[in-house]
Amino acid sequence: MKTVDLEVKERRSAGSAEARRMRRSGMVPGVFYGAGRDSIPLSVEAAALKRALGRERGNVIVNLNFADRGETHAAILKDYQSDPLGRGLLHVDFLEVRMDRPIEATVPIGLTGTAAGVREGGVMDQTLREVQVRCLPADIPQVIEYDVDVMEIGDSIRVSDLQPPEGVEILDDGEAAVASVLPPTILKEEPTEAELEAEAEEAEEAAAEGEEAPEAEEEGAEAESEAAPEE
Q: Which is deepest, 19, 123, 186, 222, by most CB within 10 Å?
């Protein structure tokens, strides 16, 4: 698992107004939750936080260096609040970890290769994209991969088919579906205007023939009545 160092400062004031002021100055407010200790409000430079976490975010061990306290604590990003406009993180929560004690984490599932069924026109449908695992912090994998090359149309894989690294336990239900190769989808083409007009004309002709038939039957019945001899 990736390990990074991050300089943070203890935050002496709180409140939404103070948080907005910090964000305007390029800082992100947060909280550090330690095992058996009081939580510590903190602030961290937004640019440094982005560099440290990258895209992995939850799968990074962060050594929080409180320079003003003379302390360093290993932690993981437990929770965060993102800017809805995509301008970075608004708030972060770090949770202290012990490198010699297992923790739970979320790990993405990566499908590698191209399934044989997909090469034949099928569609790969991945319904589960991450799993919960339990292991030592340093053993948390960045991704759990599965090679789909031999999968044919109709084949599927479940959580029990995944092979995590040694020392990593997957906590999800082993029968949960991960992905399957579906048959090709046949798309029904929309009829053209000419085809729609032709269908309409056929319907009108069929309706007209249906109206003429009763009239012809009535005329035939009248002719038979006139031709019948009187008793």
A: 19
Decide: 73 and 3 in contact? Cβ < 8 Å: no
Report residue 25: phi and psi, to 5°.
Answer: -90, 10
Q: Which residues contact 41 (CB under 8 A, 6 or more apart)?
A: 10, 11, 12, 14, 29, 30, 31
pTM recorded for the entire structure: 0.67
Q: What is the CATH code for 103-182? A: 2.170.120.20
Residues 6+ apart with CB under 8 A from 85: none
Domain extents for the chain?
A: 2-96, 103-182
H or E, element range at 224: helix 193-227
Regions of the chain short of the pLDDT cut 70: 55-58, 186-190, 209-231
Domain 2-96, second-level architecture: Beta Barrel (2.40)
